[in-house]
Amino acid sequence: MFSKRFTFLAIFATVFAAAQAKQLDATFDLVRFKATDKQNMVELYCSVNGNSVIYKKVPGGFQASVALEVQAADSAGIRHFDKLLMKSPVVSDTAVFQPAFNLQKRIFLPNGNFNFSIKAKDANSTQAASNIELPLKVSYKKDAVQLSDIQLIDSYSKSSEKNDYTKNGYKLVSYVSNFYPKGLNKLSFYTEIYNAENVLGKEKPMVVFYRIIPTRDNLAKLTIAGQKVMKAAPANVLLQELDITTLASGNYDLFVEVRNEENKVVATQRRLIQRSNPLTINEEVALNAVAPDLKDTELPPAFASLDSTKFDLYLYSLKPISNTTEGAFIEKVAKNGSNFQKKSYLYNFWKKRDDENPERAWLEYKTRIEAVEKSFANQTFHGYETDQGRVYLQYGPPSKISDERTDVNRTSRNTDSRPYQIWQYYTLGDQRNRMFAFVEMNLGNSYTLLHSTAKGEVNNVAWRAQARYKYAGSKNPSGFDRDSEQGSHLDSEGNEKQTPGQRLPQNR
């Protein structure tokens, strides 16, 4: 299966007022679909900022043109080459705001590893062409349920036409970005499910779940979700629209999974999306609302006697367990609040969580803060700013910790490794047996969370490949091919699966 998305904000530039100073601003996206058992379809989407190009006089008004050269090559040579000309709508006035104009193009390729080279040039400008290189692996199988990439949709409608914009009875205009600004409150997406009939059985029931979940660096608690029951066919189609009005700013995964009638997951796909939906809180209102009816002498001892030099540390350390509104209040209070307002906010925060004994709840969490600061803080970051510190504060101490020396699942092929730790939680709220894999990506720095089986956390079962290369001169020192590493031979924790009667060799 695939987990790597290919959305590229490929050419960035500042748009100047003078026409001769304009520089092309374009966005590209590559999305993979299966066409036949022997051929795949890669759709190229391009969107050009209408204010970043030069318009020339044409009959009826003015028009901009962008010349594209698209090449796809593998180890055998060039598999596809095309020259395309994108034209803007004809406009009557170039001094006003110009909308973006788009192109969609289909490219048919066999399974393989390809390198896409795209050159883009404003046909009316003397500016040199911009060039980008995009690696892309295409690998669809016959004997497994699989999902296409997720196509983000700007608009859709039923259509009987046959062209580069239509699929399965719909005209689909792609949304060539993964960024959703404030005011854009609908997210539409399209994906295809392959081989369900062969694997599950003709017209066997299956359920497709889809949801928007926070990534590891996003502490939002809201999840937007839905599901659709389908009957297995040679190819099934999922086209859905989600209301993201209440989705707070942050990074999210749009996640799709297919389950069979035994409720077993048979295929998954995800795509990163970014949301900007800032919560506006008036500073004066925020500070006055902290404790309007409370006096300093009325604070319980556990809050009244706090060390004032640690107020900001205590406040920011609440963020891993805060919702979006609380996080916004914390920022205001920490930056501009008085000492009394900071103490009062801490008290109110814990009183909302434990009305009967807020002191006990606070003192238990304060112990976590102190442990995190002692174990994970460094000269650059406080403990709560590190991945390990954030996880410890959010979930508490792990049930078990193993490292690169004590990891029983480390195979004999892994003769050297970056330092890493695996935290195992036997119970995590309503979840059971969840793990977090942290790797020291840079010598002497804090560990980075690369993979977890917990809900809403980063998911990358190929994390061991990234931890495998310890020295700067070794092969693939800082990255890896997730598509080649992430496969059916790895379980949910990133360990190699054992076949019956097989025992994996280990390093002790």
UniProtKB/TrEMBL annotation:
Keyword Signal: yes
UniProt feature, compositional bias: Polar residues: 497-508
Organism: Adhaeribacter terreus
Signal peptide range: 1-21
UniProt keyword Signal present: yes
Protein name per Swiss-Prot or TrEMBL: GWxTD domain-containing protein
Segments of this protein annotated with the region Disordered: 396-415, 473-508
Organism superkingdom: Bacteria
Biased composition (Basic and acidic residues): 401-415, 480-496
Keywords noted in UniProt: Signal
